[in-house]
Amino acid sequence: MSTKPAIIEAGVSTMLQCITNAAFPTATIMWILDNTTITQGVTSTTERVPGSGFITTSSLTKTYASKDDGKMLVCSATNGEYTVTSPALQLSITGALTRVSMSTKPAMIEAGDVTVLQCVTNPAFPIATIMWILDNTNITQGVTSSTERVPGSGFITTSYLIKTYASKDDRKMLVCSATNGEYTVTSPALQLSITGALTGVSMSTKPAMIEAGVSTVLQCVTNPAFPTATIMWILDNTHITQGVTSTTERVPGSGFITTSNLIKTYASEDDGKMLVCSAINGEYTVSSPAWQLSITDDPERMSALSTGAITGIVIAVVLALAIPTVWILYKRIKRQPDAVEENTHNRTEKSEVERSQIVNPAFTQPD
Length: 367
Known about the structure:
CATH class of the largest domain: Mainly Beta
Number of domains: 3
Strand content: 35-45%
């Protein structure tokens, strides 16, 4: 072999040449790559050397791929009497696809923000194609790629993934995988760390006592999250919708804080009921610890009740004293006869005595 390049660039047409000594009969040269005879791209010429024979020259024009790296190439000459073979040439092909790596590995990704990640291959041939895979799911949207030729090496493929992540993507594994039809290589996995996962909601106001009949404001607040959360108020398993207002506030690098106010007037029968606020953002649902209401009665109502109670007690006492007194007086009056009745009774008795004296001569008074 008269040409033995130290490096052969993948994807680039390369010419190798083999030459015999002057011989007769004329020799025929074959090219053999890893025990496979190559026929395409082979041309041969002969030149007579007077008094010696014929020199045969064979040229192999071929484009190698990265998969040819390390293969053994020989040229073999035969003239029907003898067969000779050249020393083997181990091909060293630049452009073998050996790696792909993420050139951007953010420590934190903010949920809801557009994030650009990048993967790059080593110079390779054929040109590689890069795929993005999130938790074993191939991502196709938001992917763009470009290639750049590096002379003597191959093509660098660069792929960009432009994506908005949600809190549900937290802890998922992301890889980029490159293939060029000969080799497939995969980057180390990147475990996503997404800010803005909805993890908690809590009541920021918990008065020890709530006064019945008085409008009271209670408040619930979420941690910074994305997507934005919605807060519901639930009293003894009943969803409250009236008197509820909500606001959101963005915390850069974290997400959105949702604040909900419940303005409600409670009654004494609400005492002991359980109140919770529940937050949901389409990915997660979290609830605050349940809070047991402690309702005090309305002071005016208590005052009215107290006044009524006192009045009732006074009336009861008066009745308790009056009824026995009246009864005693009634009894006394009943025992004493009426003066008119007594005089009439006396006169009746006197008349009866006088009549008895007239009728009975024994009682007749002397003249």
